[in-house]
Amino acid sequence: MKNTPSRTKGRLILAAYRLPFKIIQNETGYSLFQNSGGLVSAVLSLAQGQVNTSFDFADKIQWVGYTDNNPEELAGVTLENESFKAHPVFIPPQINEPYYEGFCNDLIWPLFHYFPSLAHFENTNFEAYQEANLLFFEKLKEIIQPNDVIWIHDYQLMLLPDLIRQQFPTNKIGFFFHIPFPSYEIFRLLPTTWRESIIDGILGADVVGFHTNDYVEYFLKAVRMVVGYGNKLHYVNLNNRIVKVDSFPISIDYQKFNDAFDLPEVKHEREQVRATLKEKIIFSVDRLDYSKGLLHRLKGYERFLERFPNWHEKVSFVMVVVPSRDQIEQYQQMKSEIDQTVGRINSSFGKMHWQPIIYQYRSMPFEELVGMYTASDVALITPVRDGMNLVCKEYVASRKDVQGVLILSEMAGAAAELGEALIINPTDAEEIGSAVVRALEMETDEQRKRMEAMQMRLREYDVFAWTNDFFTQMLMIEQEHKKLSHAYLKTKDMQAIGRAYQAAANPIFFFDYDGTLVPIVRDPSEALVTQEVKQIIAQLAEEATVVVISGRDRAFLSSVLGDLPVHLVAEHGALIKKKTDTDWVLNPDYVEDWKDSIRSILDLFVKRCPGAFVEEKETSLAWHYRTAEDQEYALRRAQELAWQLKSFIQPELNLQIIEGNMVIEVKKTAFNKGTSARSFLDLGDYDFILAMGDDTTDEDMFAALPKSAYTIKVGDALSVAKNHVKNQQAVFELLTIFKAN
């Protein structure tokens, strides 16, 4: 594991919609009975130091969540056991109904599972959602102490991270999203203010986790399109802080399910099933929900029976559906369709002594569930959309005999990890039927090979490793914040740098142009350096090496700075003109093989955005929108353009997309401001190095310079530079100090 910083002990506070406890009254008061879910076990082991993590928590785990109990019966009662302290959130029914059943279950759940036709968009439900998140926040406000770490879970609490951030800016906050995050085309169906609130809310966290990289990319696109923030290596820069967005595929307690194979109760269940069903067994278990693909599953099995009559009377499909929300009409209708489909298939193919489908609508206790997992020959798991799906992982983990075949939907998040399963499209009845016969006929050696590979993966990344992984990232973000922390130069600091310059024998300066030597202006052609600044630069150049590194083209730099004894670097390092040379030199790594394919995309976005224009430089193409008539509209177009370019550009083109100040530029990756700065440093033994810049492209320069260098970011954006100055006026103040020395 990477080295992580030490930290002061704080408590772990979890916030999830529902408390994972039953609150039961007894003779001595109230007691907590915690469930045995994977998350509870994982968090417990983390807090008790049973897993390898640098986090060290003080006190019991504080768990905040909704309870069905009313405030009166729990008034003045402390709810805790050996490991947890519960903090119930009381949500009045008139809020909870539109909040939980309305906004969460009738909008977010169907929409994020790609069932927009089932989504209900009601303003009153969103208002209730806001109120409920505030009630959670009010409870947390009573609890949070300095150094506490808050871990928030799932779509019911998407506004909560930012509410906490505003009040407790220094506490570490994590957020994990347990369902799919949809593509932007689905997400944008939400009203504008709703989606802005959701994105801003989630970005209140330090670390945001999803099950798969697809969900991460969808979220990052939503961030770009809705609030305008890009990302670098999954770090979203909010100017005053950064947010890490990454995939953490949730898992199960592997050992619990693997060891359960030998439990007497499980053995008994397995033997009972085998004695009753002497033929091959296909098994599935899911709760009642339209995302689980239950009807498609039945149709796939039906197609198998139609195509392969030789398997009649040799296989039984045990389908268990766990009751869920069946008081709602839509779910009642779904259950009715399942009942009818099962009845039709059984009547069409069944015999007096053989039933193709054994269907039960009930919950299963743990021992019976594992007994079925380990008795079955095939597990048929076919959701049409699922954030992860832990049933398939439980099935694999329980097979201590390394036998059995998993048929898994490609639409389940787990498919990315369990590639040795037979991966199918859940709506393709033909493909499901073919996979079933392939699974039933698979040789035991191949079953073992596939099962061993999947088990090894699940064993190494179980729910405890998942928890540890998430919290390791929570610690690593502290290091990133320290690297990107702000330290604004005061006058005395500038004077100290001036004295260091005066004492140096061989100094070198690197200056960006726009936003550094000149202020940012609406029309780039009018960004002309003043005579006063030119005089200071000329004076510095008499005693030091001065390099101006810009994204500008060589014609512009030559026109405004060509009369100064300084080195000029144009187009982010593509072209260099030494102060003693008359000609510009093109970077030898540059190859002109790409502009035509990119120019057509940029031209299209010029047509879509009045006032934008394309600047063709010798080695790059730039789409400017500083002169656009509607800046808010132009920003949205810029976000769309950047995303489209990233989707379009193939790795073999070796192109880089630079998102600068009101410009999107495309250039070759072989050079940047950092490589250019290093090329100058390699030519001399410099004892004073200073670099200043305001743009994202200057980060390459700051990162490339040695630790002894003075690196100065202009503006308040996060930077790897050691120091900041507020604006271009502060740059002039520092230059004046150099002149005085």
From TrEMBL:
CDD domains associated with the record: GT20_TPS, HAD_TPP
What's any one GO cellular component for it? cytosol
Q: Which GO terms describe its molecular function?
A: alpha,alpha-trehalose-phosphate synthase (UDP-forming) activity; trehalose-phosphatase activity
Output the GO biological process annotations, alphabetical, semicolon-separated: trehalose biosynthetic process
Gene3D superfamilies, sorted: Glycogen Phosphorylase B, HAD superfamily/HAD-like, Trehalose-6-phosphate phosphatase related protein, domain 2
Please give the InterPro entries that the UniProt record associates with this protein: Glyco_trans_20 (IPR001830), HAD-like_sf (IPR036412), HAD-SF_hydro_IIB (IPR006379), HAD_sf (IPR023214), Trehalose_PPase (IPR003337)
| Family named by the database record | Belongs to the glycosyltransferase 20 family. In the C-terminal section; belongs to the trehalose phosphatase family.
- Could you tell me what this protein is called? Bifunctional alpha,alpha-trehalose-phosphate synthase (UDP-forming)/trehalose-phosphatase
- Species name for this entry? Arundinibacter roseus
